[in-house]
Automatic annotation (TrEMBL):
Protein name: Gem-associated protein 2
UniProt GO BP: spliceosomal snRNP assembly
Gene3D superfamilies (alphabetical): 1.20.58.1070
Region (Disordered): 1-25
Length: 226
């Protein structure tokens, strides 16, 4: 029998730490999670506890108040068929993109972070991306991490930009890109966790990014069930 929200047994927990709304705060991820889920945040405020989707609760200690990525449930799990097909398709797309890159002679002007934020809400410009050197791509992927951190949900256009960055990343990955991809993975898992409708159209884009990072680049420093 499904448990209604008002029937959930809530356990005592600490309130959000001060200044958690600050993007530089180590607790900012949880703040954004609550911001996205006003219903659960209100319930949490009322009962002084933290609520997760699907009626789960968890306690926390102030010294251990890090972003958690729980399993969303079988209905949200990425199918093995999708993951296997995507790995094959990704390799084909990556090869095609690098062949095209070898033909590009024009260099792209490196954007400021503010310009980058706006640009990545527009349709992806592949030629613009191909005009960057590898060292610049590393910096742009860092920009992606910053933007992911600042948002709760991600637009289709932004997901497409992220995917193109994943395609254009050179292998083997250096430690900087590996760290950035792990961060992006966590943020997309967080965004996926905040979706309650298994037919939500955003899931397809999110799953594509998650599967690419986990299956194509083997980047996952936590036991994340996707």
């Amino acid at each position: 029998m499904e448990v209604e929200d008002d029937e959930i047994e809530c356990k005592p927990a600490l309130p959000l730490p001060p200044n958690s709304e600050d993007p530089n705060s180590e607790y900012h991820d949880i703040y954004l999670y609550f911001k996205q889920n006003e219903k659960y945040r209100s319930e949490s405020d009322k009962n002084n506890t933290l609520l997760q989707p699907h009626g789960n609760t968890f306690d926390f200690m102030e010294t251990d108040f890090k972003m958690r990525i729980p399993y969303c449930g079988d209905e949200f799990k990425i199918s093995p068929e999708f993951r296997l097909h995507h790995v094959e398709q990704f390799r084909v797309e990556k090869d095609e993109l690098f062949k095209k890159k070898s033909e590009v002679v024009q260099k792209s002007e490196f954007p400021s972070y503010n310009k980058f934020k706006n640009l990545t809400e527009e349709p992806v410009d592949v030629n613009f991306l191909l005009g960057f050197q590898h060292i610049q791509i590393i910096e742009l992927i860092k920009f992606c991490v910053e933007k992911c951190r600042a948002l709760v949900m991600y637009s289709d256009n932004y997901c497409e930009w992220i995917y193109r960055f994943l395609l254009i990343a050179q292998e083997p990955l250096d430690s900087t890109i590996s760290s950035s991809l792990n961060s992006i993975l966590k943020y997309f898992c967080r965004a996926k966790q905040a979706i309650f409708d298994k037919d939500d159209k955003r899931l397809e884009k999110y799953n594509l990014i998650i599967s690419t990072i986990v299956d194509c680049y083997r980047q996952c420093d936590e036991d994340i069930m996707i």
